[in-house]
Amino acid sequence: MEATIRTEAPIRMSGMKLKNRYILMRHGESVANREGIIVSDPSAGTVLFGLTERGRRQAADAIKNCGLGESITAIRSSDFLRAAETAGAVSDILNVPVETSVLLRERFFGCHEGMPADRYGDVWEQDAVDPDNAAGGVEPPSSVAGRMLREIESCEDRFRGGVVLLVSHGDPLQMLIATIIGIGPHRHRNIPHFSQAELRELVTGDAVEILS
Questions:
Q1: Quick check: pTM over 0.70?
Q2: What per-residue confidence (pLDDT) applies to 203?
Q3: Alpha helices (H) along the chain
Q4: What is the largest CA-CA distance in the chain?
């Protein structure tokens, strides 16, 4: 039985030194979450299925309660509507502008697009045994992790000594963490699931902590 990463302790990073601090945030409750469907195609997700009112409250409450909001110097967000609206809710509170990045987009779920959300489980089972799982046209874990790391690298080139908020989606965030700690992106389900509007910090060269 594989050991799972416990939320009670910081998640140790694997040989990675960063110039900036990074706060990872999953979007708040979306219309797709409420309806229980998979929306991962950019042609739909960037223009439809934004936040519910509950999702907007989640985003605002999370940033107000995390204790680090005032230190955030940059906000980078997926261009999917649910993430961009989450970032916008944070921006309204902190008065920090939002920049969108396609690198932070939702994972594409191929033939599962528009299907009930319980189909995620089928994909995750295949992920667990194959870092390059592309069955049914899904975006492989290795590819998702690669673009998330490119986003970090881009921020490292642009910023120094800042606190950067990255607003994205559950699978991409968990694949990023799984890669950083050295267990491989296909084992992303060993990482504690990101709740709606949850924040976790990548502490420079040290750990990932649960903030809310």
A1: yes
A2: 62
A3: 31-35, 42-45, 53-65, 81-94, 120-127, 141-158, 170-180
A4: 46
